[in-house]
Amino acid sequence: MRIIIILLLLIAANATQAACNPRTELEIAYCQLQAKGARLPTWGDFRRNNSRMQRLLLKRPSTTHGVALPKASASFNTKQTVSLITSSARATRSIPALSSTTSKHSSLSRKKSLQDCSLAGAKIVCAEQEYRLLDNLQNRHLQNNVFAAANVLGLNNYSGDIDNTRLFNSYLGDNYQRYIEGMLRLGLASSTMSYSRFYYTFEDANKNNRDFAARFEKMYVFLKKDKQSMGVKSRYSDEMPAGLHQCVELTASIVVCDNNTMNWVYHSGTP
Fold it and tell me: Which of 64, 178, 187, 229 is the 20 to 30 Å CA partner of 170?
């Protein structure tokens, strides 16, 4: 059973039935579960996911409350995706380049380091090191204390000038690094959100005066609980990055790649 909650699973236990205006079979199932008092993401958060994610979000509550889900389509187009936020809520700024965010390396040196590498599917081969694609891991391969309360994401809220591009980019990149490293601790490398989605999630929280760091921390608590009791597949698609132009060195040992729909995490050692 897949554990992937790369969006913000903020539970709305007291959501009202009036919020429902279903247009698909999965949305009808959501409304039926909502009427039974199931713990669900908010109606808005639910609808921002693609059908594959919606099914995953409903799987556990549908079993608990006896609501049958519609049969899954025989195929899934990984290039079909629903934006994290509606067009009216999209940021007015363009997405900051991840290649200029982290303070550990300059964008120039990191760009050069990947230019000296080659992508070979599940490997990125460089002159002095090699990165391998990370899959989701079963719990027996994780550290013993990974599900303890002490394991937190530890994201920060932004307190600077939102128009200070350099400061904001550094903040967002540092926090994305913390998010990725937190997901690796849970063995969920293949279930991470892309940097662009991470950015849009921040913009959505900022626009609606929500606590960005607290929302992610709450999501991480749910992830730990689910991952502790449920199994995962190592990978859910055989698709690979099209080229190194989709990749950037996040840290000295981590390279992330994405095509706006899928995210891949490569690591040069043991995470």
Answer: 187
CA–CA gap between residue 19 and residue 15 (Å, rounded): 7
**Single pTM value for the model:** 0.68
pLDDT tens digits along 196-219: 888 988 998 888 888 999 989 988
Which positions ≥6 away from 113 have C-beta within 8 Å? Answer: 105, 126, 249
Nearest CA-CA partner of 84 in 48, 56, 57? 48
Q: Which of 27-36, 48-57, 141-150 has the lowest mean pLDDT?
A: 48-57
Neighbours of 208 (CB within 10 A): 9
Q: How many CB atoms lie within 10 A of CB 98?
A: 25
The three state secondary structure string of the chain is CCCCCCCCCCECCCCCHHHCCCCCHHHHHHHHHHHCCCCCECHHHHHCCCHHHHHHHHHHHHHHHCCCCCCCCCCCCCCCCCCCCCHHHCCCCCCCCHHHCCCCCCHHHHHHHHHCCEEECCEEECCCCEEEECCECCHHHCCCCCCCCCCCCCCCCCCCCCCCHHHHHHHHHHHHHHHHHHHHHCCEHHHCCCHHHHHHHHHHHHHCCCCHHHHHHHHHHHHHHHHHHCCCCCCCCCCCCCCHHHEEECCCCEEEEECCCCEEEEECCCC
Least confident of 33-47, 66-80, 106-120: 66-80
